[in-house]
Amino acid sequence: MAQVPPVATLPLALSITGWTIVGSLGTVVAVVVGAMSLSSERRRSKRDAADQVREQADQIRQQIQTFATAVHRVVMLLNDGSALISAASLTARALRAQAGEQPAADSLRRLIGDPPTAVTAAVEGWTSSSAAEELRAALTEMMTAGREIPGDVHLFLPIAQMLKKIADDGYSSTVFIKLLTDEPARMFVNAHGDDDLDDLTRSLATHLHGNAAQYFVVRYSGALAGFQSFVDVAAPGLIDLESSVLVRVARARQSTAHYKTYTDELRGGVARLRDLLPSETLDQLEVEIDVIQTAISKEAASEALDVAHADDPQ
Q1: SS3 314
Q2: Is residue 88 situated within a structural domain?
Q3: Chain centroid to CA 129: how far?
Q4: Is residue 213 part of a domain?
């Protein structure tokens, strides 16, 4: 009978030493896997944080661009003058309507110069003008956009505030009320004593628009150019900052300093960006602030208006 070869005997259990070796290997593997997982988690966290910074920076850039666009629109509407033209025509019609259903020219002439009548007509003219409403909406959007920009990027708000004050002064019922009362009203009536009703109404609208537009251009055109130039320089400079830097600037605590003027506040905002923007950008912003300050000063306004009056044959 053939002999069956012996079967190799396999151990039924590892020795204590064998289990120790296996356990040690398992621990090493666990440590390596854990370290790899931790390293991967850290890399993922860094990527997530970097993505968050980029997203925040993009949001801030969009806010800056929104404000710059709003300023462009407001400046365009103020320079265009459509709101003045529309409100002047509607104010003249409102004044005519107060003279009665079928008024005579003399009836309208008698109302010109009467303060209560002037207030009612001017307010109605401005509130019923769609062009004036468009300007008011643009101003509101600009102010909202200026307030939403955070941190040291908040330096744009004084520009919005000055533009709003200029519009309130030059594009408002107040200007028309002044032109419909006192000496301006007397001069107008004396110059148009022979006009019929339709000619008088048209001349009145021209009186309101022409004088209000001249006042605005002489008083504020230089300032408008300065506002626009400031934004055109500052907005790209901030938008071009690295994302991490832009976010840091936006997270900065807003200054609690009290400034005497809006231009002083602008200078303070530019000074806080001294180490971030290129020197040529900072220098140009200072130049534009000087332009704005000169243009809106009382001395410059008085001189410009004196020149305008000297050139006016009336």
Answers
A1: coil
A2: yes
A3: 23
A4: yes
Distance CA 12, CA 270 (A): 82
DSSP 77-134: HHHH-HHHHHHHHHHHHHHHHTT-SS--HHHHHHHTT-HHHHHHHHHHHHHT-HHHHH
The count of other CB atoms within 10 Å of the CB of residue 1 is 3
Which residues have a Cβ under 8 Å from the Cβ of 240 and sit 6 or more positions away?
A: none
pLDDT at 46 exceeding the cut of 70: no
Q: What is the pLDDT of residues 78-113, one digit of tens each?
A: 999 999 999 999 999 999 999 998 899 999 999 999
What's CA 190's distance to the chain center, in Å?
A: 44
Write out the H or E segment, with its range, that includes residue 223: helix 197-239
- Our count of domains for the chain comes to 1
**pLDDT for residue 82:** 96
For the record, the structure tokens of 23 come out as 């356990």
Say which residues have a Cβ less than 8 Å from residue 183's Cβ, sequence separation at least 6.
none
Residue closest to 198 by CA, chosen among 117, 86, 89: 89
Evaluate whether residue 22 is within a structural domain: no
Q: Which residues contact 178 (CB under 8 A, 6 or more apart)?
A: 184
Q: What pLDDT, on a 0 to 100 scale, did the predictor assign at position 30? A: 56
Integer angstrom CA distances of residue 267 from 123, 221, 237: 37, 21, 16
Structural domain contains residue 118: yes
Token reading at 232: 């055109």
Task: Quote the pLDDT of residue 257.
Answer: 74
* Two structure tokens written together for 192: 């148009």
103 dihedral zone (left: phi>0; alpha: psi -120 to 50; beta): beta
Identify which has the larger pLDDT, 50 or 175: 175
Q: Classify 253 as helix, strand or coil.
A: coil
pLDDT level of residue 134 (50, 70, 90 thresholds): very high
Q: Which domain holds residue 225?
A: 52-308
